[in-house]
């Protein structure tokens, strides 16, 4: 699921790689309550968790970790979520390093997984390991059935406004191009986008709500005849040329880290994280989805816990700036082309990306309807669904399609 809807605290999906909740969940659960569940735990984990964490660190890490006692072992809760728990494990200061062992590591513990969710988690772990080896993500120090040990990266997530900074936008484009150029051991057919949307649609058509505030908004959304509209979108994108590449599929500010100490460098140092939705997909979706995220601010502490500003969608000049840096990284011969040929490639991407931005609005709109039915997170999912479908039709009108 989206990783940004706990009011500034990330949460991982109930099933990774775009897989869905079980069908039964829609049938047996009442409407999501407006109150948020207790997602934030105390800073100290319970004793059984601390003991297991201690053993994992001793078994998978080297150097001073082999000699630290359980009493001296340091662990704090970073995040409590519905699926994953994150902990910061650290060596105390009085344990000097023996070699190049990390002094801090991130412990990620998975929640309860269905068989389908467990299969998806295996794929996500394989992906994480490959990206770590290629230095495109945090290092992987250990993996076990209950979770994994990752590199703790001193950093902060980008703020929404920073996406518009030319230098940051350029590096995001370059990072995305590198991501798109990878060869990964996953299904190369671009089934993810509409395969997932069709599953969401099937769930949406079976949903019923009990609260009047949700019923009225849901009825409005159903009046759009979403299944028929999705077929129109599918036909439009079938006639739109877009390469199939390995995509992040959720490149928004909350999934982009600015590494500590890099703020004053001439070139920002960014790292993409959270690969739950990564798959082979159309390039236009990945970039178009990123552009759509310029419009949505999730750092809000009042209902519906997001703000939308359509004027923030990248201008043509901002898009061309992004494409310039993307193509320079993705196509090493791009800079040797004539200015005329470079312009043609960038102009073609404008059509490609903005059409696939429609799919981003539709995808997350359907997703949000499902979340409004099942999620216990304190977020205005139905309002978000309305906002995404309104943006879909506004962009569709603007594009004249």
TrEMBL record:
Origin, by domain of life?
Eukaryota
Q: What is its EC number?
A: 2.7.1.32, 2.7.1.82
Instruction: Write out the pathway annotation from the protein's UniProt entry.
Output: Phospholipid metabolism; phosphatidylethanolamine biosynthesis; phosphatidylethanolamine from ethanolamine: step 1/3; Lipid metabolism
SUPFAM superfamilies per UniProt? Protein kinase-like (PK-like)
Q: Which reaction does it catalyse?
A: ethanolamine + ATP = phosphoethanolamine + ADP + H(+); choline + ATP = phosphocholine + ADP + H(+)
Q: Where does the sequence pass through the membrane?
A: none
A Gene Ontology cellular-component term? cytoplasm
Which GO biological-process labels does this protein carry?
phosphatidylethanolamine biosynthetic process
List the GO molecular function terms. ATP binding; choline kinase activity; ethanolamine kinase activity
Keywords per UniProt? Acetylation, ATP-binding, Kinase, Lipid biosynthesis, Lipid metabolism, Nucleotide-binding, Phospholipid biosynthesis, Phospholipid metabolism, Transferase
Q: Name one Pfam family in it.
A: Choline_kinase
> Does the record's keyword annotation contain Cell membrane?
no
Gene3D superfamilies linked? 3.90.1200.10, Phosphorylase Kinase, domain 1
Family assignment? Belongs to the choline/ethanolamine kinase family.
Stated name of the protein: Ethanolamine kinase
**What organism, scientifically named, is this protein from?**
Denticeps clupeoides
> Corresponding gene?
CHKA
